[in-house]
Design a protein that fits this description.
357 residues, TIM Barrel, hypothetical protein PF0899 fold, 2 domains, seven-stranded parallel beta sheet, four-stranded mixed beta sheet, 15 helices, 18% strand, binds iron/sulfur cluster
């Protein structure tokens, strides 16, 4: 039987616990909320739809949860502990810094039923971490991840391509080291410049150039494919969009549909790769669910296809026929068909060579 989809009941604790300010960060602008009270947390749990409570994870994001004083952590976690005991919650997640994980912290989290910890790793290069004023090292990220895994907790990691001083190739190499540790989940947040941050000063002084949207989509796709090869689930690509956030972005690769852009990019490469293999393709048939990603955001992929095959048409496969997810059926000029399965493309295409040039 299919597993019920997990829902998240998110609470934002902007900057709570953070020992210093990272150069790129302003959680008030990203999340746009004040920290909740424990009563509000308890009330939100009580308000979950009857009969569906056990499908929800409570989550604390936007700060350094385990860097909070112990009493403050317990204050927030007690409503969760009670709800878990009563079967009114599935699990609890917190996000925190890698240098704020130790045996005592883990014992506390486990006592209160926290089962997932997300670590803001951001980069696996110490010089980059230093320039971003992160206040921890890559070795601390690996140590924290291993300690959490050894304790049986589910783990998530966050990476930020485009931090000052890190090339795309270095970002990818660092991700390889990190993902080889097999965290459960990955979030990819290409660096954007928010007004009022230290990074905004660097940018305005000409000391920092953010990634273009295209470069950010390229590295994100490369990281996503790397993660999937390591059986790590990518749960987010790009910042959660909002009107408030859009107003606060001074520069950089922010896009409200960034994840969809990355998906479209994947399809663009797959179709261009297929056209190189079979240049006499006249029509590509796709399953209906894949058409919009293949055409791309606002149809932008069409221009790329037209350059290689001006007469190419993309069509829905007639409903009577089935295609596996992600597959292409390519009709040739002579009427014959070629089939490209997604797994064949994945095995042969090397994203790091194409995307990190
Ligand atoms: S990135 Fe994380 S640790 Fe740094 S200031 Fe923001 S919330 Fe705090």
């Amino acid at each position: 039987m299919a597993q019920a989809k997990k829902h998240i009941l998110p609470f934002f604790i902007p900057h709570l616990g953070c020992p210093q300010q990272c150069v790129f960060c302003d959680q008030h602008k990203i999340a746009g909320q004040r920290p909740p009270t424990a009563e509000q947390v308890a009330q939100a749990i009580a308000d979950l739809p009857v009969g569906q409570q056990a499908d929800y994870d409570l989550a604390f994001y936007g700060g350094s949860f385990t860097a909070l004083p112990r009493e403050r952590q317990e204050y927030y976690l007690e409503p969760a502990r009670q709800a878990l005991a009563a079967g009114r919650l599935a699990g609890v997640r917190v996000s925190t810094r890698p240098d704020c994980i130790n045996a005592e912290v883990i014992e506390l989290l486990r006592y209160y039923g926290v089962d997932t910890v997300e670590l803001g790793v951001q980069s696996m290069h110490d010089l980059v971490l230093e320039r971003a004023r992160r206040g921890h090292t890559a070795a601390q990220s690996l140590a924290a991840l291993r300690q959490l895994q050894a304790a049986g907790l589910r783990t998530g990691v966050q990476l930020m391509p485009g931090l000052p001083g890190e090339s795309l190739a270095e970002c990818w190499q660092g991700a390889r080291r990190l993902l080889a540790e097999r965290p459960n989940m990955l979030r990819i947040y290409p660096t954007v410049v928010l007004r009022g941050t230290v990074l905004a000063q660097y940018y305005q002084q000409g000391e920092y150039l953010p990634l273009t949207l295209e470069a950010a989509a390229n590295i994100t796709l490369a990281l996503k494919m790397l993660a999937e090869d390591c059986a790590v689930v990518v749960i987010r690509m790009g910042l959660q969009p909002s009107d408030d956030l859009a107003e606060q972005v001074l520069a950089g690769p922010y896009h409200p549909a960034f994840g969809a852009l990355v998906q479209s990019l994947y399809w663009r490469h797959k179709i261009l790769w297929a056209l190189c293999l079979w240049p006499h393709t006249r029509t590509i048939y796709l399953a209906g669910r894949d058409i919009s990603a293949a055409v791309g955001h606002r149809g932008q992929n069409r221009a790329y296809y037209a350059r290689m095959a001006p007469e190419l048409a993309l069509k829905h496969l007639p409903t009577a026929q089935n295609l596996p997810p992600g597959a292409l059926l390519l009709r040739q000029a002579d009427g014959s068909d070629k089939l490209l399965l997604d797994e064949d493309f994945r095995q042969k295409w090397q994203p790091e060579k194409e995307l990190l040039k």
